[in-house]
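Observation: inputs received (chain + protoporphyrin IX containing FE).
Thought: call the complex predictor directly.
Action: predict_structure
Action Input:
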Amino acid sequence: MLPVLVANLSRMLDLSSRKLRRSNGNHFFFHGPWFLGMSIFVTANPVDARHLFIDNFQNYPKGKDFYEIFELGGDGIFIADGDTWKYHRVKAQMLMSNTRFRVFVAQLSRQKIENALHPFLVHASSQNKIIDIQDMFLRLSFDMSTNFIAGVDLGILSRDLSENPIARAIDEVAAALFFRFVMPRPWWKLLRALSVGHEKRMVTGGRVLDRFVAEVIEERRREIIEGRDAPPSMLRSYMEETEVQESYKFLRETIINFLFAARDTTSAAMTWFLWAMCRYPHVEEKIIDELNSISKSITSDGLAVFEAEQLEKLIYFHASILESLRLHPSTPLNIRSVLKPDTLPTGVKLTPGMKVVASMYAMGRMKTIWGDDCLEFKPERWISKEGELKYEPSYKFLPFHTGPRSCLGKQIALTQIKMVIAAMVYNFSFEIVEGHVPEPKFSFILHMKNGLMVRVKKR
Ligand code: HEM
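Observation:
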């Protein structure tokens, strides 16, 4: 069974979605070889999701295996369970729901659009260059995230697209984490003991990240001691609180967990959305019409930039982003452990030691949830007859997860996606290079396997 699984990894999302669509109850069990004791319950059923993530959420923690796989992130919000998780969650929630913080993130996004994104696209357009827009979004999203999380701008999105050691370390660590996730535990443990392959890169990448984190914490500490002004950031705000001032461990875990939570998710969402704009020009046209109805400022380059609060008014644009996330959720799978024996409302019995996987990718493609046209890209499905946004329960639409562990960065991510995409499609047109077929890649994040190669033209 396992060699078949490994050989089909790249097609795993589509294969499992097909199986989920055909299975009674839209769920199934996957049993690995007996000697691994692997028993996984895979579901795309909203009734299961509601029970697992909301009603009996305490029984489905991330678990010990998850903790071991993601050891680099320590006890951070993304990894921890119980009281440690709650502590991180309460602190982060307070900061991220603060209006001043949200306004600051929007201002920062605007600066990045004007100073990095627009110059990059103007240059690419004037040179008639083919660009990998996935790589561009990863760079932009990394710059934006390090800025609001740690207060540093690494300037990774630049004209020359030079390689950055910190971004490379994150990529290598993420690939190694995924390798651990899909390989039997004894296998990756052996590679770790031998310090070879992904495991070796995990160690070297981890060191680069730790050095980066140590430097930014030291820099913020000096700013505070010397009474220097600095733009607000998560790190600075935490360090100004006496309670956590000295806890290096807490600050380190916050930076690492938030970098992993924010960078790839947001950039993957932007990449699939831009792909949708190229693939469905009638949707793009409607979005541009909507953008024409709100106020904008014109930069010295003669390019339009939109403010977050203006973009909030646009229903069709918002609906299109939800539609893109429905078909291409940034995190395609969500994994949990089983603490105590439990019976789901659908009658399935789960026992401790099993793993539970909810496929957001499959859920977005279920006729039982979205109707016969579930595979079509139709922003209209999110809009009522009265022209308002339709409410869909979060356990049915899981790209930002649901329940007590739902995404804390949802509003920030939506703001960034809207500001960036508006500044792109209003000023530039994009065309996918002929013969380039974007394909989902099977990993924690729904990246495109071969990037998204496009030509860009100034409108
Ligand atoms: C389009 C962009 C994003 C998507 C689709 C997304 C999606 C998700 C999902 C599915 C989870 C649940 C993961 C799990 O339980 O295993 C999650 C958790 C989380 N997200 Fe996001 N996210 C996005 C952007 C962001 C950003 C920009 C931030 C930070 C500013 C962020 C911060 C977090 C945090 C801290 C958690 C952990 C919550 C907890 O466990 O209590 N996310 N996100």
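Thought: report the result.
Final Answer: The chain has one domain: 89-331+364-458. Residues 149 and 255 are 7 Å apart (CA to CA).
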